[in-house]
Each structure stands twice: as C-alpha cells, then as structure tokens.
Task: inverse folding
C-alpha cells in the first residue's frame, strides 16, 4: 500500500493601531456636547509553507526523510491592511433631545487607485417625549414612565467581497505552479494568465435606516423596544453577462460592483424586571423578523 507524509508550517502577524482624542462640555443651561476624532489601522500577514513526499519506507516513522517518492513543496503569502480616520459629534439637551453625527474615511489594500478610499457618514436623532412638560403634566405619565422615539441613517463600507474577489486581483500577470509538463526530458512548471485585472472594483456600500422607540411602564418594571430597519447594499461583486470572452482566452471577465440587495424587517423586545424582597429577576422576549429582497 502506497503511503505518504506531509508537514506544514505557518505564521500569522497582526497589528492594530488605535489613536483617538475626545472632548466634552456640560453647560449650566442643560446643553451637553462631546466630540471625538481618531485614527485606526490594521495590518495582517499570513505566511505558510508545506512539503509532502510519497512512498514511506515504513508507516511507523512518517517523516519526509523516510519517504522515497517525489517531493512536493508549496508556500503562500497574504498581506492585507486597512486604515481609517473617524470623527463623532454628540449633542444632548437635558436628556430630552439627542443628536449624533459620524464620519469615517476608510482605505483598504484590497483596492487600487481612487477605488481604495471611501467616505461613510451616518447620523442619529432621539426625542424623549416623556421629558416634555405636557407629558409630565398628563395622567399618561403615571402609566408610561419613559417614552423615546429615535431614528438613524448611515452609509457603511465593507471591503470583504467574499470568495469571488481575492487580494491583488487588481494586478495582472500569471499564476505560477499551475500544472506542468515534461519538455526535452525536464519537468517544467506551468503558469496561467491571471486574467483581466479588476481595476474598477471598490467598497460594498450599505445604506441603513433604523426607526424605533423605547417605552417603560409601571415604574420601569415593564419595558419594550421596537425597531424597523432597512438595509440597501450596492456594489456586490459580479461579472458582466452582456460582454462575452471566447473560451479560448482561458479566463473570464473581472468582477465589478454590479449587484445590489435589500433587507427589511423589524425587531421587538419586551422585558419585565422586578423583585421579591432580596430576590431580583428579569424575564424577556425577543422577536426578529426580516425579509430579503434581491434587486
């Protein structure tokens, strides 16, 4: 019975950098301000090497040196990095009105040229109606202790395009060690063209809308949250179907940001918090429902 042995070695290097500074100011008239600016970066390197050899002399000693077949050696290297600048500004007035604005400017090594960087802003607002005088003066305040409505909208970027797009697919050239052939008595390692470089592909961009409310009853013992959300993603990778390349070329068209999809749904949670003397307990129910509409 033919047997073989293989050995592999790999190492992973990851470095993260986060730098930020914030400032806040509480005014006597109830206004509260907070600002934050920062920078973050991630570097990831993955290196591997493997070797295998067939026809072991004895299966009880499965090492490379105790095999007499043809050796095979392979190795790999992957290097990705992201970097981004971010800023956030918050305003709050007596815990009644709330505003937040965010902005990110992110770059990824997976893309090239002017496709590498993207700006992704977002914002949110909230209104705690139960802090208004007309609410406090009404009989409703005896039942509903807290009621806040809120909403947010933002643009988020994603540089993970899945298995369809690999690092450095924006480069041309050849993939080496792809098959081979014996020429004039010598084995020659084969190579194949990488195909057309993907020079137009960039970030997947998701537009996310969220509208909801928080409510509490019975001295905050009964509380609930409701959210409606809608996410629209643009720039999902795919190949064009209206342009054909002859099969003899040996490669396909590059991936581009062509497709989109939509997710909509809602989330509802209800919780009861109470105590019996020194025994405190909490009971909650969560419900999430969504639909996936592909555009």
Result:
């Amino acid at each position: 019975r033919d047997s073989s042995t293989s050995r592999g070695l790999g190492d992973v290097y990851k470095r993260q950098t986060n730098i930020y500074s914030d400032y806040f100011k509480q005014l006597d008239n109830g206004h509260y301000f907070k600002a934050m600016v920062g920078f973050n970066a991630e570097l990831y390197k993955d290196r591997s090497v493997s070797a295998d050899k067939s026809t072991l002399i004895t299966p009880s000693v499965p090492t490379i040196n105790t095999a007499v077949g043809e050796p095979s050696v392979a190795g790999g290297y992957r290097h990705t990095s992201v970097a981004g600048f971010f800023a956030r500004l918050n305003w709050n007035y007596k815990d009644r009105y709330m505003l937040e604005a965010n902005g990110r400017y992110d770059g990824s090594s997976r893309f090239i040229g002017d496709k590498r960087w993207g700006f992704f802003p977002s914002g949110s607002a909230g209104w705690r109606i139960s802090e208004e005088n007309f609410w406090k003066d009404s009989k409703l305040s005896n039942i509903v202790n807290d009621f806040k409505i809120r909403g947010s909208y933002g643009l988020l970027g994603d540089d993970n395009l899945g298995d369809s797009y690999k690092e450095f697919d924006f480069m041309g050239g050849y993939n080496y060690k792809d098959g081979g052939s014996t020429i004039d008595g010598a084995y020659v390692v084969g190579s194949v063209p990488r195909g057309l470089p993907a020079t137009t592909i960039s970030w997947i961009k998701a537009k996310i809308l969220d509208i909801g409310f928080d409510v509490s009853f019975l001295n905050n013992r009964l509380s609930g949250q409701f959210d409606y959300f809608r996410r629209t993603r643009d720039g999902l990778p795919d190949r064009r179907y209206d342009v054909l390349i002859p099969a003899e070329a040996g490669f396909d068209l590059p991936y581009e940001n062509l497709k989109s999809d939509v997710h909509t749904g809602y989330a509802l949670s209800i919780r009861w918090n109470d105590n019996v003397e020194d025994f405190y307990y909490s009971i909650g129910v969560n419900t999430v429902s969504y639909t996936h509409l592909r555009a």
